[in-house]
């Protein structure tokens, strides 16, 4: 995630770049400002666009160069007061240009399925961008309309087909929640939304519940999606057997934000927190594994990686007793050897002698 500084501070152009938007709420582009280090958030700049010529943009913040993955552009110059006045004058003419476009399209004909939704002049009026959408979402031939408008308005005209979400962004308005639409207030880019996001959050799949004013899935479905996914990873799935303080039951509903599940216990629905749950299937599997001996060890050639062989519980107990007896015997022999001048016995030889003695004792016990 890109870090954007959106407050008035002084930064080094060698370490940061400008984050600039050419619309009130639009995509952010990155610009080098080494030649204009005095630029601050809220200032206007003039930059060259690849398709729409010179455009005026607003500085929205600063981004560390190390986090920038796309192209870094160059600023032509800071905007002057005359540029700001020119932009205001041409912005006021945008509505009239849109009306002229609709009238000309009606005169030419062939645009019955096309809806012209917005028009924007650049800051000096040299380019007019007209945005439209088609009900059938098909490509529209705009060559005749473009030529006619350029002759009538005396400026370069570009017609751009946009999608349903962009239309809702331009037209603004209120969402189903009762507040201004997210796309018109703060969303700079549209993300991919899928029906799985609604399913993961337990939202009704009724179209009226998950569809926005644009007719597409609501952008807000993605806001809490990752939190729901992470929370669900810690909780048992539906129909899972679990143990609770109230008894054994099955999960019938998951509540990620409450960190709890609803369990059916003897025809009763009980809400149980995650820390009070015990997954019975996994617990029983672990019990069975702990009780079973190592099959490889019994047949020889165990390669399970343990430092000592894995056998029955009795084998482990006898091995532990043997280690204790060997340690006691070693202490006694060390005490005896300290009273003599003989060379002390090597540990490996002592260990072999002890095990031979213990093996003989076991054989004698079995014969009796």
What do these coordinates show?
The chain has 368 residues and is α+β, with helices and mostly antiparallel strands. The chain is built from 12 helices and 14 strands. The protein has helices spanning 81-92, 94-108, 143-153, 164-171, 182-185, 195-200, 207-210, 225-233, 280-291, 295-299, 313-337, 347-367, and strands spanning 16-21, 28-32, 44-49, 53-64, 72-74, 77-78, 114-121, 127-134, 156-161, 241-244, 247-255, 260-265, 268-273, 278-279. The strands form 3 sheets. The protein has a 6-stranded mixed beta sheet, covered by helices on one side. A hairpin with a 4-residue loop joins strand 11 and strand 12 (260-265). Helix 2 (94-108) packs across helix 3. Residues 306-312 have low confidence and may be disordered.
- Uncertain segments: 306-312
- Beta content: 15-25%
Radius of gyration: 38 Å
Considering DSSP H and I runs of 4 or more, what fraction of the residues is helical? 25-40%
Question: If helices are DSSP runs of H or I spanning 4 or more residues, what is the number of helices?
Answer: 12
- What's the count of strands? 14
Q: What is CATH's topology name of the domain at 90-162?
A: GMP Synthetase, Chain A, domain 3
Strand order of the largest sheet: 5-2-1-4-3-6
CATH homologous superfamily (4th level) name of the domain at 90-162 = K homology (KH) domain
CATH architecture of the domain at 90-162: 2-Layer Sandwich
Structural class: alpha+beta
Using the alpha-carbon principal axes, give the shape. elongated
> In CATH's first tier, which class of the domain at 90-162 applies?
Alpha Beta
Give the termini separation: 77 Å
Largest sheet: 6 strands, mixed
What's the order of the H and E elements? EEEEEEHHEEHEHHHHHEEEEEHHHH
Average pLDDT for all residues = 81
């Amino acid at each position: 995630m890109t870090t954007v500084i959106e407050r008035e501070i002084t930064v080094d152009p060698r370490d940061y770049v400008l984050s600039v938007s050419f619309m009130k709420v639009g995509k952010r582009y990155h610009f080098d400002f080494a030649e204009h280090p005095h630029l601050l958030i809220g200032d206007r700049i003039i930059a060259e666009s690849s398709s729409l010529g010179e455009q005026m943009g607003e500085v929205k913040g600063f981004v560390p160069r190390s986090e920038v993955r796309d192209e870094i552009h160059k600023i032509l110059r800071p905007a002057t007061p005359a540029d700001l006045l020119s932009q205001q004058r041409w912005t006021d003419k945008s509505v009239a240009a849109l009306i002229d476009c609709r009238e000309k399209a009606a005169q030419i004909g062939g645009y019955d399925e096309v809806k012209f939704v917005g028009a924007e002049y650049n800051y000096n009026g040299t380019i007019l961008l007209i945005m439209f959408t088609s009900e059938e979402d098909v490509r529209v031939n705009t060559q005749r309309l473009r030529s006619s408008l350029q002759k009538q308005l005396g400026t370069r005209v570009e017609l751009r087909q946009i999608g349903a979400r962009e239309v809702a962004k331009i037209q603004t308005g209120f969402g189903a929640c009762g507040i201004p639409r997210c796309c018109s207030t703060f969303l700079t880019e549209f993300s991919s939304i899928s029906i799985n996001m609604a399913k993961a959050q337990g939202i009704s799949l009724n179209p009226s519940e998950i569809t926005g004013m644009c007719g597409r899935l609501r952008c807000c479905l993605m806001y809490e999606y990752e939190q729901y996914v992470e929370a669900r990873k810690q909780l048992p799935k539906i129909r899972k057997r679990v143990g609770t303080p109230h008894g054994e039951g099955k999960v019938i509903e998951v509540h990620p934000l409450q960190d709890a599940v609803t369990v059916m216990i003897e025809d009763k629905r009980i809400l149980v927190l995650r820390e009070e749950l015990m997954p019975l299937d996994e617990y029983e599997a672990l019990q069975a594994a702990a009780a079973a001996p190592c099959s490889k060890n019994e047949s020889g050639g165990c390669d399970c990686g343990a430092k000592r062989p894995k056998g029955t519980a009795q084998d482990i107990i006898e091995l532990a007793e043997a280690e204790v007896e060997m340690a006691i015997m070693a202490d006694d022999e060390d005490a005896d050897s300290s009273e003599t001048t003989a060379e002390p016995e090597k540990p490996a030889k002592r260990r072999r002698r002890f095990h031979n003695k213990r093996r003989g004792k076991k054989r004698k016990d079995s014969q009796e």
